[in-house]
Amino acid sequence: MNAWRHRPLLEWLGRRIGRLSRQQREGELSAIFISAAAGALMRPCDEALAIVDRGLAEDRYALGRGFWRLTDGCQVTLIYAEDLRRAERRHGLSLSAGQHRRNLVVSGLAGLDLRGVSLRIGEALFEWHRVRPPCGYLDRVAGAGTAKALGRHAGHCLRVREGGRIKLGDRVTLI
């Protein structure tokens, strides 16, 4: 069989696969939440300042006031919008006002493994640190069953490697 005869098809497939790969590596920042102290309500923001090795300005963890700050704190937490919608649908919860207690809600990247990945959001660069599963504390401040509804993989800890402004609608690019 002559490989040259199939070259146009192979080139088209290569372009298509490349386009799909790029699409899967880009999402959008759908929501930003901060809280001034452990247990305080999460406050939605249109933008936030990411501070290197601290977190988001005015957030509990950057201020040293997070519940897990001494043992298990995260600089910034992230959750997929698709996981929130799934939990709302399956368990009849309302999570759109930050009851999930995560800082960043990202759409378009659900199901991707972030281990070993950096994320560019607006001016800031974040580095994946570890999975941040919901815990019993979430049930105490957001309502019984919230942690179970979100599931054990519904959250990621990020470290801020390059500071800067992030805004709603910013592209989230995996590096």
TrEMBL record:
- Stretches assigned to the MOSC domain: 43-175
Q: Name one GO molecular function term.
A: catalytic activity
**Pfam families assigned to the protein according to its UniProt record, in alphabetical order:** MOSC
SUPFAM superfamilies this protein is in? Answer: PK beta-barrel domain-like
UniProt name for this protein: MOSC domain-containing protein
